[in-house]
Amino acid sequence: MPEVGTEEITLEELSAGTEITTQTYLMTPEDVRKEAEAYEDYNPIYSDPEFAKHTELGYVVAPFYITFGEFVSPLRKIGKRIATNTVYSKSIRESYKPIYLGDVITKKFSVHEIYEKRGKTFITWCIDWINQNDELVLRHLRTSYWVGTPQPLIKFDRSGKMEM
C-alpha cells in the first residue's frame, strides 16, 4: 500500500477525460447499514428483505447517497493528492439505477472538465459508478475552485524574526 498522498497531481497534467483511478467494491449489508445510520435514515428498503420484496424494486437497495469515501479516499488509496488547495464549489449527483446488495460496483474517478470563470480556474471531477453488468448506476460531478497554495501574509525566518 503506498504512503498516503506522497505523489502530487498538478493542474498541468490534467485535462478533460483524464482518468485518475478506478476502484471496485462489493455492496454488502454492512455498507448499506453504515451509510443509512450516518444519515439517520431508517427506511426499511435499506435493511428489511421482507419489506423490500413488496416494493417496486423487490430487493434491499443501497441509499442513493451512498459514498464509499467518494472524493479524497480514491486519491489516498493510490498514494496521490492534489498538489494545490481547492475549494468545494458545487456538486451534482445523478442516480440512474438502484444499487442492490451483492452488486459489484466499479467507481471510475476522472476529470470531467476544466474551465475558467472570471479569471479563476475550476475543475469538475466525475465519479461514475458502474455495476457488474456495465450499467451506469450513479454519477457524481464535483466542482472545485483551483485556488493554489496560499502564501503567508507575514513571514518569519528560522530564528523567529519577522521578515520585511
Question: Secondary-structure map with pairings?
Answer:
Elements (H helix, E strand, L loop, with lengths): L6 E3 L9 E8 L2 H10 L10 H4 L19 H6 L2 E3 L3 E10 L8 E14 L2 E11 L5 E11 L8 E2 L5 E2 L1
Write a structural description.
The chain has 164 residues and is mostly beta strands. It has one domain: Thiol Ester Dehydrase, Chain A (Roll). Helix content is 12%, strand content 39%. It is built from three helices and nine strands; from the N terminus they run ββαααβββββββ. A five-stranded antiparallel β-sheet has the order 2-5-6-7-4, with no helix packed on it. A two-stranded parallel ribbon has the order 1-3. The chain has a two-stranded antiparallel sheet with strand order 8-9.
Notable traits:
mainly beta, Thiol Ester Dehydrase, Chain A, two-stranded parallel ribbon, 164 residues, 5-stranded antiparallel β-sheet, 9 strands, elongated, single chain
Which percent range fits the helix content? Answer: 10-25%
Would you tell me which CATH topology applies?
Thiol Ester Dehydrase, Chain A
For this structure, what is the CATH class? Alpha Beta
Backbone structural class: mainly beta
Sequence of secondary-structure elements:
EEHHHEEEEEEE
Radius of gyration: 20 Å
Query: Proportion of β residues?
Result: 35-45%
Overall tally of structural domains: 1
Order of strands, widest sheet: 2-5-6-7-4
* CATH homologous superfamily placement: Hotdog Thioesterase
Q: Could you give the distance between the termini?
A: 44 Å
Nearest-integer average pLDDT: 85
